[in-house]
Task: structure prediction
Amino acid sequence: MKLLAKSLITGFLGLISASALSVVNAQSNAPTFYADALPVFQKNCVACHQDNPPDVGGIFAPMALDNFEQAKMWAPVIKNALVTNYMPPWGAHERHRGEFKGERYIDKKEKDLLIAWVEAGALEGSPSDTTSGNAIVANGAGTTLPPSGWWIGDPDLVVQFEKEVYVPDEIEDWQPTIQMPVPEGAHENPAWISMAELDPGGPWVHHIVSSHMGVGVPGRGPFTYPEGWGVLLPEDPFITVNMHYHKDPGEGTAVNDMTRAGFKFYDEGDVIDHVVETNLLPHRNWTIPAGHPNYEVNNTFDVEEDIYLLSMGPHMHYRGKAMRYEVEYPDDEREVLLWVPNYDFNWQFLYEYETPKFIPAGSTMHMSWWFDNSEGNRFNPDPAQDVVYGPATTDEMANARIYYAPTTPRGIVVGEPVPEDVIQTAREEDARRREFSQLFDPTADDFSWLEEDSP
Result:
């Protein structure tokens, strides 16, 4: 009996040892944070996911993925974001890989590695497994905010509201036009913008539109124009911006906003060959039926002169599902310029070509939008309502903004007199914005308009 018991105990202990050894071997072959996951995070994620993360159009990443403890804590969420393709955020289809600046595709083997790391228990490994060669930053973008507090570096000009804008409790959706005064003596002559950065005061800033600064929306970073491309900022005591605030209304929800903008200018002697123009290309004459899961809207735009297409910025609201830009050339050949199969209102990217694309005169751009107004769209404000084009976030839009320039080089030398047609156009752009908008005075403390009916 004693011999049998001893034999059983010995056998049992052997099985335990073998099982433990198997676990050790499995864990020794499993990916670890420092050896495997961290290099992938550094390449694809930490440009946003870091301590003191960058403000990307009012969006802040909730965790630092170059920190093991935080990465482990968020591991299940990381896996889900990868499996559902929610992260890394990028709307352009895989067919466009290599076409646009700042693209955020993650290679399948890297994606599979991160999922395997999570499924193996998000093991730490040894910090010594990290090598300096692993520290590849996503898309070459900086991950540490410069001392200036601006991603574009030290701005040549900074403007902001004269006073904080108060967004009251009652507000859900509000779109005031506001002037940002230029500091006295800071901008006395026309200047050519090479970079512009919008710094929204918080997540309630839904978008910012200016004829000179471009558009600030969730997920979009600074504007950096290619060398020789620029926008003229006329001498003017104000920069006019259209703000769009959106938040949950109710007691205690009021906020104060101090949105800022920074500019970097070209230096004297630089040459501007291409004066950047923009066109919103909106389409308004449609109604999305209540409950429709895949409503399609189409529009066209005729290209009347040879242009270089610099970038495209599709825009819809919560019911936006997909969007496509296509060009039909004069010889009837067609080409897809941009296909966004899964549009996400929270990530409104500007798709800027690595090399501006030549579009000949006589071409036609075809734009198509798809909307999901059904109950299956979890972001849908009200699937029981027909929806038309409108400014509120709970309305819809079908915009296809483009940035472009004529192909003929202008040869404008910075510091020399600006051609009259260029400066006149730049002045008229902002004048129109002021003429057709009711300017809000943030110093007035008058909110009687809250009691008025919307126009």
In short: The chain is about 20% helix and 30% strand. The chain has four domains: 1-27, 31-140, 157-273+410-445, 279-406. Residues 37 and 114 are 6 Å apart (CA to CA). Residues 1-27 form one domain.
